[in-house]
Amino acid sequence: MNKVNTDFIKEIQKYGAFDITACFNCGNCTAVCPLSQEDGSFPRKMIRYAQIGLKDKLLDKKEMWMCYYCGKCSETCPRQAEPGAFMSALRKYAIAKQDITGFSQLLFKMPWLNFIFLMFVALVFALFLYGVRVENAENEKIIEIFHIPYHLIHDMGIIILAIAGFALLAGIIMMLFRSLDIKELIPIFKEKKPGVKTLIWLLIKEAWNVGWGEMLAFKRYQGCDAEEDTKGEKRETKVGFLMKPWFLHATIAWGFFGLFTATVLDFLFKDPAIRVPLWYPPRLLGTIAGIFLIYGTSVVIVKRVIAKEKKYSNTTFADWWFLLALWYIGLTGFILEILVYLPEVDPKTADILFLFHVAPAMELIVLAAYTKLAHVFYRPIVLFSYNLKKQLLNLKTSPREEKQSDNE
Ligand code: SF4
Ligand code: SF4
User: Fold this and answer.
1) Which of 98, 122, 153 is the last residue of a domain?
2) What is the DSSP secondary-structure string of 18-65?
3) Closest residue to atom 3 of ligand 1, CA basis
4) Contact present, 389 and 184 (Cβ < 8 Å)
5) Which end of the chain, N or C, is less surrounded by CB atoms within 10 Å?
């Protein structure tokens, strides 16, 4: 049974939605949306659900994850209800609801907490870098400034990372179950009876479609570039390739994934004392990814400051924080990399830069489950689950079953 939540509109506004009570359901937004489909119509339907307070029904919908906030719907809305901003707010709301600790809600509603958390992470790293490690009477290593045992800071870091990892994993599992909807899935299995081979094939196919198509090639997002002319025919927008919204989004995603992979590879396989050449594969990957990240975030920041295009005109604090953090991490990472190749670098300068780079990077990773970054994990999971269910539904019933129902 769907519960009606009369305060839902007020709640969703805290995440960046505008006055959706202004919407009179004309349907313009759905008509112009390049990504809305028959089996997943939005944003009009989603706004209607919000207006009547069907919060749970909304959260179960895949549609919010199908939208890439191209802003076309907001441009055509005759009531300035900003349907694009509503869809974006809905995703943030879903991220917050997925978090079992409630910390995500706090971060979205009280964004200054991000800053306090960043200061905390910076302090922990500063202790690591600058604290003088000495041994106390019990032969225990302590940081001399505050008499904090060295192992305590180390353990604290591991505990924080473990909690963050657990929260993200819990969110991913909950999202997977929510979108697969076991109650709906069991009857499909009973009816279609897919064999193991078919099931494995479908799992691989959908994982590829989402992994490659959605997360790396952004095939659906590329669909936002098409515009309908007066005759209703689709044509490409006139924006240059390097400025296309999907490409900018892709450069940020490629940059982020690339830098993350390069850091993990470095950590696993590289001796920190050895200076590797620029063409060392993880270093090369990191350099290229850094260029992508700096390019994408810089252009989007400028576009958001100018705020001429609808897509970039409504920026919440959470959007700014996320974007600026990525830009800053990319830039400081790049400067650090250049420093490595300079002949004479004062170790203290390198340490300070390292601190300024690592603290926000760690903050971003530790808060992955609680901030806008979570969409990177949730969007593919939801689309994977729904596509898989769709494929299962489209399976032909096994011949044995058909025979049985004929006899009946
Ligand atoms: S959001 Fe605007 S365009 Fe969409 S249905 Fe409502 S009034 Fe119409
Ligand atoms: S922002 Fe773009 S993709 Fe999202 S609902 Fe509006 S038109 Fe569709």
Assistant:
1) 98
2) --GGG-----HHHHH-SS-BTTB--SHHHHHHHHTT-HHHHHT-SHHH
3) 77
4) yes
5) N
Q: Are residues 52 and 200 in the same domain?
A: no
d(CA 17, CA 335): 38
Tokens of 136: 């106390």
pLDDT class of 346 with cuts at 50, 70, 90? confident
Ligand 2 pocket, residue 245 CB under 6 Å:
no
For CA atoms 342, 347, 348, 352, the dihedral sign is: positive
Residue type, 293: L
Among the bound ligands, name the one nearest to the CA of residue 71: 2
Q: Which domain holds residue 41?
A: 8-98
Tell me the mean pLDDT in the region 30-34.
93
201 and 301 inside one domain? yes
190 domain residue, yes or no = yes
Q: Reply yes or no on whether the pLDDT at 133 is more than 80.
A: no
CA of 78 to the centre of ligand 1 (A): 7
Could you say which ligand is closest to the alpha carbon of residue 28?
Answer: 1
Asked if 89 and 196 sit in the same domain, the reply is no
Token pair recorded at residue 314: 């409504």
Phi/psi for 325 (5° steps) reads -60, -45
CATH of the domain at 51: 1.10.1060.10
Domain-ending residue, one of 64, 98, 132: 98
Total number of domains constituting the chain: 2
Any idea which residue has 């199908």 for tokens? 66
Contact 339, 129 (CB under 8 A): no
The verdict on whether omega for the bond into residue 78 sits within 30 degrees of 0, i.e. cis, is: no
Nearest protein Cα to ligand 2, atom 2: 70
**What is the model's pTM?**
0.84
Q: Ligand 2: which of 41, 46, 64, 73 to mutate, most ligand atoms within 8 Å of CB?
A: 73
Based on the fold, state whether residues 262 and 353 are members of the same structural domain. Answer: yes
Identify the burial level of 135 via C-beta atoms within 10 angstroms of its C-beta, where 0-12 means exposed, 13-18 middle and 19 or more buried: exposed
My answer on whether 61 and 194 are in the same domain is no
Structure confidence by residue, pLDDT tens digits, 191-244: 888 888 999 999 999 999 999 999 999 999 998 876 554 455 555 566 788 999
